[in-house]
Structures are given as C-alpha cells and as structure tokens.
C-alpha cells in the first residue's frame, strides 16, 4: 500500500511541476503515448527487419533466416512490452527505452534497449 501511495505522490508531483508548461508537457504526453501505440502495432515488423539485418551482417542466408527469426521474435516481445509501458506511463515524461524509437526509423540498425524510466529532466 505504501508503494502505491508513493507512486501516486510521484505522479502528482511531476504533473504539478510540469503544469507550468502545459503545452510542452502535453506534447510530451502525446508523443510518448503515440510512440507506445506505434510500437505495439508495429512490433511484428521486427521479424523481417532482423532477418534482413542478420542476413546482411553475416552473408549467410540460412543463419539470417533462423537467427534473424529468433532475434526478431525476441525484439517483437521487447518492443511490444516497451510500447505497453510507454502507453501506461504516458503521464510521466521519460526518455525512450527502445532505440530506434520506431521500427522503421533506422531499418539497418539493431534494436537496442536503454535505461528504463530515465526522466527527461535527468541529464
């Protein structure tokens, strides 16, 4: 129960702190929620992306197909999870967890996951 109260207090504190800048805070919320929805819907694109990048990086079609498929399924689960977390925590302005932010942003780059819940005010 105590953790729940602390979480509510933290969300309210961040909301009040950002109330001074309603337009930029609103933009942050909308961007984060939008990225969450996009990542939930486009997560399956990780499979063909990883098949292509694994094949191109290893010059082996069989390894690219099977290794890329496994890697793609893992990244699909990861990107879906990140999308769900971003959607749920949209009122808390944090930096993106997954890079590239959208699956198509840099199709030749492997998907990477960064620090979780690093707020935009942290440097």
> How would you sum up the major sheet?
2 strands, antiparallel
Dominant shape: elongated
Q: Hey, roughly how much beta strand do the residues contain?
A: under 5%
Uncertain ranges: none
| Integer tally of domains | 1
- The pLDDT mean sits at 81
Q: What is the tally of helical segments?
A: 4
Extended strand count:
2
Adjacency order of strands in the biggest sheet: 1-2
C-alpha Rg (nearest Å):
17 Å
Helices and strands, in N-to-C order? HHHHEE
Tell me the structural class.
mainly alpha
Instruction: Tell me the helix content.
Output: 55-70%
Question: Separation of termini?
Answer: 31 Å
Molecular structure report:
This protein has 123 residues and is mainly alpha-helical. It has one domain (26-113). 64% of the residues lie in helices and 3% in strands. It has helices at residues 2-18, 22-42, 46-58, 61-88; strands at 98-99, 112-113. Strands 1-2 form a two-stranded antiparallel ribbon. It is elongated. The chain starts with a helix and ends in a 10-residue tail after the last strand.
Compact overview of the structure:
By secondary structure, this protein is mostly helical.
Map the helices and strands.
Layout: H1 2-18, H2 22-42, H3 46-58, H4 61-88, E1 98-99, E2 112-113
Antiparallel strand pairs: 1-2
Helix pairs in contact: 2-4, 3-4
């Amino acid at each position: 129960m105590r953790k729940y109260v602390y979480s509510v207090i933290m969300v309210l504190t961040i909301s009040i702190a950002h109330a001074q800048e309603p337009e930029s805070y609103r933009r942050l919320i909308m961007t984060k929620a939008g990225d969450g929805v996009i990542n939930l819907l486009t997560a399956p694109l990780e499979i063909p992306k990883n098949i292509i990048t694994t094949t191109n990086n290893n010059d082996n079609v069989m390894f690219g197909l099977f290794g890329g498929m496994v890697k793609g399924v893992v990244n699909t689960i990861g990107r879906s999870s990140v999308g769900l977390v971003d959607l749920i925590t949209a009122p808390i302005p944090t930096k993106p967890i997954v890079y590239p932010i959208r699956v198509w942003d840099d199709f030749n780059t492997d998907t990477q996951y960064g620090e979780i819940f690093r707020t935009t005010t942290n440097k």
